[in-house]
Amino acid sequence: MAVTAPRRPECSVPLVEVSITEFDLSCLPETGAVLDQLLALRPQQVVIDLAGCRHIDAAAIGLLLDVHRRMVRAGGVLAVRNPNPRITRILQTARLDQILPVHTDAEAAPATAADAGAAPAAPAAATSVGAGIGPPAGGTPPPSVAPRAAAYGRAAVTVRT
Fold first, then answer.
1. Residue 16, helix vs strand vs coil
2. Are the C-beta atoms of 32 and 59 separated by less than 8 Å?
3. Which residue numbers delimit the STAS domain (predicted)?
4. Does the pTM exceed 0.85?
5. How far is Cα 31 from Cα 38, in angstroms, rounded to an integer?
6. Can you tell me the distance from the alpha carbon of 102 to that of 117, in angstroms, rounded to the nearest whole number?
7. What is the CATH number of the domain that holds 154?
């Protein structure tokens, strides 16, 4: 009779944010490795923040599609946030905006509380490190968010628990 080790319970993270400042063929291997490690966490949602990114190429779009497929298979969602107008046009030309949610901070917050019908919720704070990206204006995140951040080359990863 074979004895098997007890299975560890599956663990997942609700939200992982990745800030990418360079997203093209030259940095694809290291960015892909970061995203592989990130997907091993089984996140429910991955948000790729492109606010500091000036360019995206076909190889990066292919990587986004691969991560999207893997997220869908695992029951998760991949979203892109804050692309500049040039990257937005590239995403639209590639029709990626029809596959992935693409958000800007301007869309997330209504102009006034009256527009939303109620007081808007405070935006979730994020801490990103590396590649010239710092914490958001307004200080440290609330204790309930407790992000853990680690920098990997040109991509900064923030895990929210």
1. strand
2. no
3. 1-113
4. no
5. 10
6. 24
7. 3.30.750.24
Instruction: Find the domain containing 81 and state its range.
Output: 15-108+146-160
Token pair, residue 27, equals 């940095």
Q: What are phi and psi of 77, to 5 degrees?
A: -130, 135
- Tens of pLDDT along 75-134? 999 999 999 999 999 999 999 999 999 998 876 544 433 343 333 333 333 333 333 333
Domain count, the chain: 1
On the CB side of 156, how many CA atoms lie within 13 Å of its CA?
21
Q: Which of 38, 46, 37 is nearest to 77 (CA)?
A: 46
Residue 128 lies in a domain: no
The single-letter code of the amino acid at 153 is G
Q: Do you know the residue count of the chain?
A: 161
